[in-house]
C-alpha cells in the first residue's frame, strides 16, 4: 500500500531554491494524503487531466496542432517559465501560455514583488460538469467496496461493530462532501448573485465592526479564526472567500471522514493478527477459471 501510493505520485516541478529535503517532505505529505483520503488525490488527478484535455483543444483550435497532452501536463506542472524584464522567472500554466502564444501581448499574473517559484501540488483545477459526476460515481463505488467485509470474521465483537459503522460513515461523508461542494461552489454563488443586495456602506460596516468590538478577547480571536477559515488563500484574494455557513460543514465532514478512514486503514493491518482458517488455504483458481 505504501509502495503503490509512493510510486504513483508525479509532483509538480520544484522551485529553483528547493532542497532535496523539501522535495522529499513534500512527497511524503502527498503520500500521507493519498493514504488517508485517496479520493483527494483522484480528484486532483482527474481535474488535471481535464485541464490538459482542454489545453489541447485550445491550442489545436488556434492552429498549434503539435501541442500534445504531454506538453499540457508539463505546462500545468510548472515546466514553462516566463522571463519578464521587470520580474524574476516564474512558472505559467497551459492556459496562460496559450494566451501569450495566441495574443502576443503581456499579461498580468500578480504583484511583481512576489512572483511564485512553483505550482502547489494540491492545486485543483475546476472540474467540468461531466467530470464532476464521473468523480461522484467513481468515489461512491470505491467507498462501497468496503461493504464487502460487512460479514467478515473479526477477532472481537467491538471490531465486528466498528467496521460497518466506519463503512457507513465513510460513504455518508463522501456523499455529503459532493452535495456540500456542489452547493458551496455552484448553487450558492448563483443564488447570491441572483439575489445580491446593494454593497454595504462604510457606515454599515463600521456599525457591524463596533458591534463585535465590545464582546471581549474571545470574540476577537473567533473573528480572526473565522476570517482565516473563510479565506485560506495565500494572498487573501477576496474572490476566494467562502461563507462560514458553507465551509464549516465541509470541515465537519472532513473531520469525520479522516477518523473513519484512519480506522479502516488500521483495521486492514490489525486484522492480520487473527486470520480465519480460510486465510491460510491455497486458492484453486481452476474452480473459478476453467482450463487455467
Element layout with pairings:
Elements (H helix, E strand, L loop, with lengths): L1 H6 L12 H17 L1 H24 L7 H8 L3 E3 L7 E3 L1 H10 L25 H16 L12 H38 L7 H12 L2 H15 L13 H27 L22
Antiparallel strand pairs: 1-2
Helix pairs in contact: 2-3, 3-4, 6-7, 7-10
Keywords: Membrane, Transmembrane, Transmembrane helix
Can you give a write-up of this model?
The protein has 292 residues and is mainly α. It folds into two domains: 2-122, no CATH class; 146-280, no CATH class. The chain is 59% helix and 2% strand. It is built from ten helices and two strands, in the order ααααββαααααα. It has helices at residues 2-7, 20-36, 38-61, 69-76, 94-103, 129-144, 157-194, 202-213, 216-230, 244-270; strands spanning 80-82, 90-92. The protein has a two-stranded antiparallel sheet with strand order 1-2. α2 (20-36) crosses α3 (38-61), α3 crosses α4 and α6 (129-144) runs antiparallel to α7 (157-194). The longest helix is centred in the middle third of the chain and has 38 residues, at 157-194. The radius of gyration is 24 Å and the shape is globular. Residues 106-114 and 204-212 have low confidence and may be disordered. The chain crosses the membrane at residues 28-47, 131-150, 162-185. Keywords: Membrane, Transmembrane, Transmembrane helix.
Range of strand content: under 5%
Distance between the termini: 28 Å
Order of helices and strands: HHHHEEHHHHHH
Q: Please give the domain count.
A: 2
Strand line-up in the sheet with most strands? 1-2
Tally of separate helices: 10
In the predicted model, the low-confidence regions spanning at least 5 consecutive residues are 106-114, 204-212
In which range does the helix fraction lie?
55-70%
Number of strands: 2
Overall, the morphology is: globular
Radius of gyration: 24 Å
Helix/strand-derived class? mainly alpha
